[in-house]
Amino acid sequence: AQSVAQPEDQVNVAEGNPLTVKCTYSVSGNPYLFWYVQYPNRGLQFLLKYITGDNLVKGSYGFEAEFNKSQTSFHLKKPSALVSDSALYFCAVRGGFQKLVFGTGTRLLVSP
Amino acid sequence: DTGVSQDPRHKITKRGQNVTFRCDPISEHNRLYWYRQTLGQGPEFLTYFQNEAQLEKSRLLSDRFSAERPKGSFSTLEIQRTEQGDSAMYLCASSMIFGQETQYFGPGTRLLVL
């Protein structure tokens, strides 16, 4: 079965510093990977996805993610964090019938 | 804005009552999904429609839950005889039918069962 793991419950970073939110995956076949962000009491907003092609995927709001097949990882990155980036981030992999299988989420806290 | 919409945004009900939620997908999207998210967890898949056909249901979807998409447009999710364990955020998403299309989520309906 497809699954993702987000090993960190929370990531703390100072504004202006680079940030990384980690995700590892387990799939049979080609992985289709996604990152979403969730603000309090809101639905999920799509950030980016990896289907095929370049290992570095660029997405919304300056976020990017690096796909690493040998390490089965899909870490989310941003060169310079903003306080407004503070939110809950979810990694997901496509399972059967197009459904998404989500990780448990990582809370990002960016301090001024 | 032509994003996914859900109604109501919040619902408080007493145990044993029935509740129904509505989801309106992005207009050109053929696929529609329901997920449930409990506090501190990621969303969990419940069911999936392609046009009006319900193609998959999770084991999470007990016989008290039913979902419909009668004309291939909006969808409803009904929970009968609600239990306190049904308290959660119910999320709807939609996507195009081709390839690995992105799922776009609505704002969710937060259900509290007292």
Average pLDDT reading of chain B: 93
Strand content of chain B: over 45%
Oligomeric state of this protein: heterodimer
CA gyration radius of chain A, whole angstroms: 13 Å
Q: Give the largest interface pair and sizes.
A: A-B, 25 and 27 residues
Q: Helical segment tally of chain A? A: 0
Distance between the termini of chain B: 34 Å
Q: Shape of chain B from CA axes?
A: globular
Low-confidence stretches of chain B: none
Strands of chain A, count: 12
Q: Which class best fits the helix and strand makeup of chain A? A: mainly beta
Report how far the terminal alpha carbons of chain A are from each other. Answer: 41 Å
Largest sheet properties of chain B? 7 strands, mixed
Major β-sheet annotation of chain A: 6 strands, mixed
Fraction of helical residues of chain B: under 10%
Give the ordered list of helices and strands of chain B.
EEEEEEEEEEE
Number of strands of chain B: 11
Helix percentage of chain A:
under 10%
